[in-house]
Design a protein that fits this description.
Length: about 80
């Protein structure tokens, strides 16, 4: 039974990857982001989305690690 679950997971991940690849290829128009005086380089929309997801993943992991470190009780020597 676990073999079937693993295979279904692999198939669903492959389908998800293919869907994301198709959607990313459709977002190939180059755009420039502007914020106050800052102007970014022209990148395809798919690159901006990928950058946002990676940055969110990294910041989320750093935030979780920071909160885990703060919640651990200090160990006393004794």
């Amino acid at each position: 039974m676990s073999w079937i679950k693993k295979q279904l997971l692999k198939i669903s991940l492959a389908i998800t990857f293919l869907l994301v690849a198709v959607i990313a290829s459709e977002n190939s128009d180059a755009v420039q982001l502007r914020f106050l005086e800052f102007e970014s380089p022209y990148w395809p929309v798919s690159w901006w989305l990928l950058t946002a997801f990676v940055a969110g993943f990294a910041l989320g992991n750093v935030s979780k690690s920071w909160s885990n470190l703060r919640s651990k009780p200090s160990q006393s020597q004794g």
